[in-house]
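Researcher: Next entry in the queue.
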Amino acid sequence: MSVIDLTVYLKQGSKNEKVILEPLLKTYNPYELSAKLLQYIGEDDILCSFKSADALNQLIQRKYIMVDVFKTELIVLLQQNPKNLPFQFPLFIGHLTLDQKALGFVWTRLSEWVSQQHTSRIFRVNCLQALHDLKTSALQKDYDLIVSSLAHVPIASLQARIRILAKK
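Model: Structure for this entry, 168 residues:
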């Protein structure tokens, strides 16, 4: 399968339809496939961007790949407008092992996104989840401030995630 075939494959179906990985894994090894999928995330073609994020998420969840291999590419994508990124993107960031400098940049960006009113609700919820996954004892106070600033936001899914994370 060539890159053009991958584009055609990703354009099949609707945006919220799950990507079936098996045909892709017969053609590509998981890391090669992941590298190709990352090229679509944040691009103008929303269907390909969302479907590639779904496929990448499946590869991570099924433990076909370690997301840290693509740390550089994911951190570069943090510089984009959140409206161009699929809602799963912050969850990829939450899986990364980051040094202090990278963590500071990632933390700042996710904090901005979770607070933006014009960002999609599910994206904001996933940003909060990523912040929770990345927090260290040094960032606990900052995390608590972020959560308290979101306590008044009338988004049911965000409030539900705050309650779930408080129990962890």
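Model: Residues 46-61 form the longest helix (16 residues).
Researcher: Noted, moving on.
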